[in-house]
Amino acid sequence: xxxxxxxxGGAGYIxxxxxxxxxxxxxxxxxxxxxxxxxxxxxxxGPLVVADIADSATVTKVCRDHHVxxxxxxxxxxxxxxxxxxxxxxxxxxxxxxxxxxEGLRAAAVPAVLFSSSCAVYGSPSEQPIREGTPTNPINAxxxxxxxxxxxxxxxxDSYGLRWSALRYFNACGADADCEVGELxxxxxxxxPRALMWIQGHLENFQIFGSNYPTPDGTAIRDYIHVTDxxxxxxxxxxxxxxxxxxxxxxxxxxxxxxxKEVVDEIERTTGVKIPSAYAERRxxxxxxxxxDPKRAAAGLGFSPQHSxxxxxxxxxxxxxxxxxxxxxxxxAIPNS
Length: 337
What we know:
Structural class: alpha/beta
Low-confidence stretches: 330-337
Strand content: 15-25%
Strand order of the largest sheet: 3-2-1-4-5-6-11
Distance between the termini: 42 Å
Radius of gyration: 19 Å
Order of helices and strands: EHEEHEHHEHEEHEEEHEEHEEHH
Mean pLDDT: 95
Largest sheet: 7 strands, parallel
């Protein structure tokens, strides 16, 4: 029997890609998702249980019924901008919800948890690239909620023997090369899908938020990690935990930073469509630059990104968007390539 892994938020963007990677690696993912943001048709590599992470009793029952050996926790609200205007929503779901999840897992004696954390825990760090030992100082409720959960995991580990790892990943992007799953949200805030949706006519306008950051071209710099590489990092970290490896924190990125303007330029090259340069004010809670130091993940997990060059990221995202969002802009010629 394949080892069964509970995947909370497995119907979402990163969760669904990770479920596919888990299946390929010989695991059976059991998705627990309330479908408030996820997609039922993204659950293709194992069973789906429609439930909330705050329902501890259901978490316990699912883990016992499926003989779950570990959990990967993705279920969270993840908009930096929204977290600055509605922090209560983020603390209620991301922190309190995770407490109830951990209690459900503890009752079922699940020994290991892999947590989807974020580089947002660092805030606006004074050093680049960012090491795991870089001081954490989140500047928005989203990052603060992730850091609180990391502390919860450490305390559960110290007191209850839970083995855990937290993957602090940087900007997840791109799409499954088979176009089976991709980035699909009703309220899209991420750069690459917004630009592609504008090209297809699904957004009225496309704006670059901030043109006066202290960066070479004035736009924010980020470390972009392909979602397929990110999914593989989860498989590697899970294997390390199940094989008795120590608990720990790992940055998941490439060590390379691209500015927003550089990403837009690559989108134009890939699609053949010119995107007008429309700038807006910076979004609250957005730091100027976030670039990972990936050495610990390479040494401790054997992680090496294979798909995270900017060209591959944009090509796979564009292929997915042409499948998921057929173009409706009548006055824009959309290349077939």
